[in-house]
User: What shape does this take?
Amino acid sequence: MLLPLLLLLWAWGALAASPPVPPRSLTLRLLQTVIFHNANSTDIVGTALVGDLETHSLDCSPCKIRFLQPWAQQGLTPKEWQDLETLIYTYLSNFIYMMNDLVKEEGEGYPFVTQFTEGCELHPNNTSRQFCDAGMTGEDFVSLDMDTGKWVTRRGDKLTLKTQEILNYNRAVAIALRFLLRTCVNELKSFVKHGKESLERQERPVAVVFARAPPPAGTPAPLLLVCRVTGFYPRPIRVAWLQDGEEVVPGGQLNSSGILPNADLTYQLRSSLAVEPGDGHSYACRVEHSSLGGQSLLIPWGQSRRWSPGLAVGIILGVVAVAAVAVVLWWSRRRGYQDVRPGETRA
Ligand SMILES: *[C@@H]1O[C@H](CO)[C@@H](O)[C@H](O)[C@H]1NC(C)=O
Ligand SMILES: *[C@@H]1O[C@H](CO)[C@@H](O)[C@H](O)[C@H]1NC(C)=O
Ligand SMILES: *[C@@H]1O[C@H](CO)[C@@H](O)[C@H](O)[C@H]1NC(C)=O
Ligand SMILES: *[C@@H]1O[C@H](CO)[C@@H](O)[C@H](O)[C@H]1NC(C)=O
Assistant: This one.
């Protein structure tokens, strides 16, 4: 298994000269999940992400890489992509073979799941870091130490220690992975260059402030002001509450949903502030985001802007307006009708 692998790596050769580094830290991450149903049946699914953007998917029977972004094929020739598929297939096959052997030997049961995450981070100062970690049934399992090329683990159970020992003895998996990771930084630089538009995409947040439906009359509960911010990209954002223009310091009054994903690769967040009804202070929600070009959104909350009476008044005004128009129309038509009647006097 090792010799063809080394030949493949030798044949691949060096990648093109490296383009510039990104303006902010960026990570290229490959994820592979291996589901061991039984000794003869495994499923492999994989995906690659640049930052939070899904760029490739992997389907393994045998391994085939699919490109999910128009620029995701950049950086390698079609032949090199094929070699990469072979490389991934080789190390996953080695790994699966080894795991099945081990599970049999140790008398462990099926099904179980292993997950790999490997990739690299590139920083604006042109330094980079590579990583490769494996998990088993949702927990840390083994990691590849990039400096020594040895597998390390923080778990002490027999299966993990045995896996670590075999992986350190049979070098094929580590060699394939280290090669994959050596190309990672150059690939990431290529994506930074060709995928600039999608990676530097900016979507402005839309924010509203409203009060949660007040508690039933007579219960002395605080009023919950909610600032809902949605549709923003990239993910980093700062949302704060201001009381009389002063930022409210984090504490029991404040609560946040944390940043949650939307279906269209934008994000949302809700921040709430508990206040005493009619306390005489002014409140506002302030949103700072890279898409706002150094400015911030300021959404005030005023007692007069409380949505429920406002909405009710709006609906009543609307109904009155429609009724008035109807009456005028009816009256003018009636008058017109009377006009054509001969011999009658007008009122
Ligand atoms: C970044 O570092 C690499 C080697 O680590 C070098 O080849 C490249 O020229 C550097 N790029 C910049 C923009 O300094
Ligand atoms: C796996 O395949 C081998 C030989 O093909 C067979 O003997 C064994 O029963 C199979 N095991 C399972 C769990 O299907
Ligand atoms: C480069 O930047 C990263 C992330 O900002 C930082 O962790 C690292 O220490 C920096 N390295 C150098 C040599 O400045
Ligand atoms: C914060 O909000 C969550 C749900 O949105 C709720 O479960 C939790 O109790 C709240 N925490 C506080 C301190 O109000």
Observations:
- The chain has six helices and 17 strands.
- The first helix runs from residue 2 to 12.
- Helices lie at 2-12, 78-106, 158-169, 172-194, 196-199, 307-339.
- The CA atoms of residues 337 and 343 lie 13 Å apart.
